[in-house]
User: Fold this.
Amino acid sequence: MKIAYLLQTHKNWEQLALLIRLLKESWNEIFVHVDAKARFDEEQLHQLIPNIDVRFVQPRVKVYWGHDSQVHATLALLRSAFHAPENFDRFILLSGQDLPIKTNDHIFQFFDNNPHEYLQYYQFPIKWWVYNGYDRLQIYNFPAALGPFWNKINRRIQMLFPFRRPLPFDGALFAGCQWFNLTRGAVEYVLQYVQTTNILNRIKYSSCVDEIFFQSILLNSPFAGTCQCDDLRYADWELHGSNPKTLDQSDLQKLQESTALFARKFDQTHDPAIIQSVMQILEKSPR
Assistant:
């Protein structure tokens, strides 16, 4: 089995280098997309990981929170890895602020024994989302131009009126966190769907569509029966914000007890100690 790790990142290059060092094995390859808005020097990263070959996705996409550019960046990673000569069996999407919390051997064995699609999904209407999530697709959103706050005001104003855009997806709508762990067959289906439909034009001016796009395609596909509602990530959403908690030392016990393979999110500028603790967990775990 060959695994392709797909990393979306925009900051903390030393932390990115650490993630790459933790993940790299002979049976995987690492593909990286760096937000085009970030100041980034490939050579500087190579100096941090001199003996590891990383494949950078070009051209880079300018990625904005809540914008369909998130989908375009993910698709760029998928295309790059899918068309690579290795014929990868598994495609795992991570952010640069993720870390594995299980050993690489454990991760390999898990996917070798479980040939399913792993991604979080819930069917619309999503009761804990404003307007049950339909405002993300049925009105015009301009997050890149307005920013999160003013785009929220824009959505509220538009939702007062009866006009609604047609839904971009055929069939039922599904949503969940954007991170996934897909088989080659599922990735091929997604890429063919994108190539043979007008979906990328139809999702323009949607909000946070990266949390809807892959779920709605796959849960209306022949792969629906193999989809497991689990993205295999530990994240703390107790604050019910638009982002999970940035983890710190107080979360260590929960990480140790979790059955997830990965966790997010970490920030070396917020609490470097928790990152060191995770590295110690991995070193002490049986291989």
